[in-house]
Amino acid sequence: MPDHFEMFNRFIRKYVEMTPEELVDLQQKCEKVEFSKGTIIIKANEPQENLFFITRGIVRNFIETDNGETKIYNFRTEYMQVTGYALYNYANNLKALVNVQCLEDCIMIKVPLSIIKYVVENMKYGERLGRYMAEAHVVEMLNYIIKRDSKSIIERYDCLEQEYPNIHQRVPQHMIASYLGITPVHLSNLKKTRLVKSSIKNSNKD
User: How remote is the C-alpha of 74 from its chain's centroid?
Assistant: First the structure.
Protein backbone atom coordinates (compact mmCIF):
# COMPACT_ATOMS: atom_id res chain seq x y z
CA MET A 1 0.00 0.00 0.00
CA PRO A 2 1.40 3.43 -0.89
CA ASP A 3 2.16 5.94 1.83
CA HIS A 4 0.06 8.79 0.48
CA PHE A 5 1.58 11.47 2.68
CA GLU A 6 5.10 10.30 1.79
CA MET A 7 4.19 10.74 -1.89
CA PHE A 8 3.07 14.27 -1.00
CA ASN A 9 6.31 14.90 0.91
CA ARG A 10 8.44 13.74 -2.03
CA PHE A 11 6.54 16.13 -4.30
CA ILE A 12 7.23 19.05 -1.96
CA ARG A 13 10.91 18.16 -1.45
CA LYS A 14 11.34 18.16 -5.20
CA TYR A 15 10.87 21.94 -5.17
CA VAL A 16 11.81 23.21 -1.73
CA GLU A 17 13.82 22.16 1.29
CA MET A 18 11.78 21.45 4.38
CA THR A 19 12.84 20.04 7.70
CA PRO A 20 11.20 16.83 8.96
CA GLU A 21 9.46 18.95 11.59
CA GLU A 22 8.05 21.31 8.94
CA LEU A 23 6.80 18.39 6.85
CA VAL A 24 5.08 16.87 9.88
CA ASP A 25 3.54 20.25 10.71
CA LEU A 26 2.24 20.57 7.15
CA GLN A 27 0.92 16.99 7.12
CA GLN A 28 -1.05 17.57 10.30
CA LYS A 29 -2.84 20.49 8.66
CA CYS A 30 -3.79 18.47 5.55
CA GLU A 31 -6.14 15.54 5.06
CA LYS A 32 -6.19 12.36 2.99
CA VAL A 33 -9.50 12.20 1.14
CA GLU A 34 -11.14 9.70 -1.23
CA PHE A 35 -13.51 10.46 -4.09
CA SER A 36 -15.61 8.16 -6.25
CA LYS A 37 -15.37 8.15 -10.02
CA GLY A 38 -17.52 10.93 -11.47
CA THR A 39 -17.27 13.23 -8.44
CA ILE A 40 -16.75 16.91 -9.23
CA ILE A 41 -14.37 18.12 -6.55
CA ILE A 42 -14.08 21.72 -7.76
CA LYS A 43 -16.88 23.62 -9.50
CA ALA A 44 -16.36 26.52 -11.88
CA ASN A 45 -17.57 29.91 -10.65
CA GLU A 46 -17.66 28.75 -7.04
CA PRO A 47 -15.15 29.77 -4.36
CA GLN A 48 -12.17 27.45 -4.27
CA GLU A 49 -11.10 26.66 -0.74
CA ASN A 50 -8.65 23.80 -1.32
CA LEU A 51 -6.06 22.47 -3.69
CA PHE A 52 -5.42 18.75 -4.03
CA PHE A 53 -2.45 16.48 -4.62
CA ILE A 54 -3.26 13.19 -6.38
CA THR A 55 -1.78 10.01 -4.99
CA ARG A 56 -4.07 7.68 -6.92
CA GLY A 57 -6.40 8.34 -9.85
CA ILE A 58 -6.90 10.78 -12.70
CA VAL A 59 -9.06 13.89 -13.13
CA ARG A 60 -10.02 16.26 -15.92
CA ASN A 61 -10.22 20.05 -15.91
CA PHE A 62 -13.11 21.26 -18.05
CA ILE A 63 -15.75 23.91 -18.68
CA GLU A 64 -19.26 23.84 -20.09
CA THR A 65 -19.88 26.50 -22.75
CA ASP A 66 -23.10 28.45 -23.11
CA ASN A 67 -24.20 26.16 -25.95
CA GLY A 68 -23.69 23.05 -23.81
CA GLU A 69 -20.34 22.00 -25.26
CA THR A 70 -17.73 20.46 -22.94
CA LYS A 71 -14.17 21.68 -23.39
CA ILE A 72 -11.39 19.77 -21.62
CA TYR A 73 -8.23 21.73 -20.82
CA ASN A 74 -6.13 19.15 -19.05
CA PHE A 75 -5.81 15.84 -17.28
CA ARG A 76 -4.04 15.43 -13.95
CA THR A 77 -2.82 12.18 -12.44
CA GLU A 78 -0.55 10.77 -9.73
CA TYR A 79 2.11 13.11 -8.30
CA MET A 80 0.31 16.18 -9.69
CA GLN A 81 -1.45 19.01 -7.93
CA VAL A 82 -4.99 19.99 -8.84
CA THR A 83 -6.75 23.36 -8.66
CA GLY A 84 -9.49 25.18 -10.52
CA TYR A 85 -6.92 27.81 -11.59
CA ALA A 86 -7.92 30.15 -8.79
CA LEU A 87 -4.77 29.74 -6.70
CA TYR A 88 -2.94 32.88 -7.71
CA ASN A 89 -4.12 34.80 -4.66
CA TYR A 90 -4.18 32.13 -1.97
CA ALA A 91 -5.04 34.70 0.68
CA ASN A 92 -8.54 35.01 -0.76
CA ASN A 93 -10.99 32.37 -1.93
CA LEU A 94 -11.22 33.28 -5.59
CA LYS A 95 -13.76 31.58 -7.80
CA ALA A 96 -12.54 28.57 -9.74
CA LEU A 97 -12.30 28.99 -13.50
CA VAL A 98 -12.81 25.32 -14.39
CA ASN A 99 -14.52 22.20 -13.09
CA VAL A 100 -12.41 19.30 -11.82
CA GLN A 101 -13.93 15.82 -12.08
CA CYS A 102 -12.58 12.42 -11.05
CA LEU A 103 -12.36 9.98 -13.95
CA GLU A 104 -11.43 7.11 -11.60
CA ASP A 105 -11.85 6.46 -7.90
CA CYS A 106 -9.24 8.83 -6.48
CA ILE A 107 -7.18 9.30 -3.35
CA MET A 108 -5.79 12.78 -2.72
CA ILE A 109 -4.20 14.99 -0.11
CA LYS A 110 -6.46 17.97 0.50
CA VAL A 111 -4.58 21.19 1.25
CA PRO A 112 -6.72 24.14 2.40
CA LEU A 113 -5.62 27.39 0.77
CA SER A 114 -5.38 28.88 4.25
CA ILE A 115 -2.59 26.36 4.93
CA ILE A 116 -0.66 27.55 1.87
CA LYS A 117 -0.82 31.03 3.38
CA TYR A 118 0.42 29.60 6.69
CA VAL A 119 3.32 27.83 4.95
CA VAL A 120 4.32 30.99 3.09
CA GLU A 121 4.32 33.09 6.24
CA ASN A 122 5.83 30.62 8.74
CA MET A 123 8.21 28.20 7.01
CA LYS A 124 11.71 29.03 5.82
CA TYR A 125 11.14 28.19 2.17
CA GLY A 126 7.37 28.51 2.28
CA GLU A 127 7.28 31.53 0.00
CA ARG A 128 9.16 29.59 -2.67
CA LEU A 129 6.66 26.72 -2.45
CA GLY A 130 3.69 29.10 -2.63
CA ARG A 131 5.20 30.84 -5.64
CA TYR A 132 5.80 27.53 -7.40
CA MET A 133 2.24 26.37 -6.83
CA ALA A 134 0.90 29.59 -8.31
CA GLU A 135 3.32 29.82 -11.23
CA ALA A 136 2.96 26.14 -12.17
CA HIS A 137 -0.65 26.65 -13.20
CA VAL A 138 0.11 29.81 -15.16
CA VAL A 139 2.79 27.93 -17.08
CA GLU A 140 0.48 24.96 -17.56
CA MET A 141 -2.26 27.09 -19.11
CA LEU A 142 0.21 28.94 -21.31
CA ASN A 143 1.62 25.62 -22.54
CA TYR A 144 -1.90 24.47 -23.38
CA ILE A 145 -2.58 27.62 -25.40
CA ILE A 146 0.77 27.40 -27.19
CA LYS A 147 0.26 23.74 -28.09
CA ARG A 148 -3.27 24.42 -29.27
CA ASP A 149 -2.23 27.35 -31.48
CA SER A 150 1.16 26.22 -32.77
CA LYS A 151 1.16 22.43 -33.01
CA SER A 152 -0.70 20.14 -35.37
CA ILE A 153 -3.28 17.66 -34.08
CA ILE A 154 -0.78 14.83 -34.59
CA GLU A 155 1.89 16.71 -32.59
CA ARG A 156 -0.58 17.38 -29.77
CA TYR A 157 -1.63 13.73 -29.83
CA ASP A 158 2.01 12.66 -29.52
CA CYS A 159 2.59 15.14 -26.67
CA LEU A 160 -0.42 13.76 -24.80
CA GLU A 161 0.84 10.19 -25.13
CA GLN A 162 4.29 11.23 -23.91
CA GLU A 163 2.89 13.02 -20.87
CA TYR A 164 0.38 10.25 -20.05
CA PRO A 165 1.66 6.94 -21.54
CA ASN A 166 -1.45 4.95 -20.55
CA ILE A 167 -4.04 7.69 -21.14
CA HIS A 168 -6.08 5.57 -23.56
CA GLN A 169 -6.63 2.90 -20.91
CA ARG A 170 -7.74 5.40 -18.28
CA VAL A 171 -9.78 8.03 -20.10
CA PRO A 172 -12.78 7.64 -22.45
CA GLN A 173 -11.85 8.35 -26.05
CA HIS A 174 -14.45 11.08 -26.47
CA MET A 175 -12.73 13.02 -23.66
CA ILE A 176 -9.33 12.70 -25.35
CA ALA A 177 -10.97 13.93 -28.55
CA SER A 178 -12.42 16.90 -26.65
CA TYR A 179 -8.98 17.77 -25.27
CA LEU A 180 -7.49 17.65 -28.77
CA GLY A 181 -10.37 19.65 -30.22
CA ILE A 182 -11.42 16.95 -32.69
CA THR A 183 -14.31 14.52 -33.09
CA PRO A 184 -14.14 10.94 -31.74
CA VAL A 185 -14.22 9.70 -35.35
CA HIS A 186 -11.21 11.86 -36.20
CA LEU A 187 -9.40 10.50 -33.15
CA SER A 188 -10.18 6.92 -34.16
CA ASN A 189 -8.79 7.55 -37.66
CA LEU A 190 -5.72 9.24 -36.18
CA LYS A 191 -5.00 6.25 -33.94
CA LYS A 192 -5.35 3.88 -36.90
CA THR A 193 -2.93 5.99 -38.94
CA ARG A 194 -0.38 6.02 -36.12
CA LEU A 195 -0.74 2.24 -35.72
CA VAL A 196 -0.14 1.64 -39.43
CA LYS A 197 2.90 3.91 -39.47
CA SER A 198 4.30 2.17 -36.38
CA SER A 199 3.84 -1.25 -38.04
CA ILE A 200 5.60 -0.09 -41.22
CA LYS A 201 8.45 1.36 -39.19
CA ASN A 202 8.92 -1.87 -37.25
CA SER A 203 8.80 -3.92 -40.47
CA ASN A 204 11.52 -1.77 -41.99
CA LYS A 205 13.71 -2.40 -38.97
CA ASP A 206 13.39 -6.16 -39.52
Answer: 6
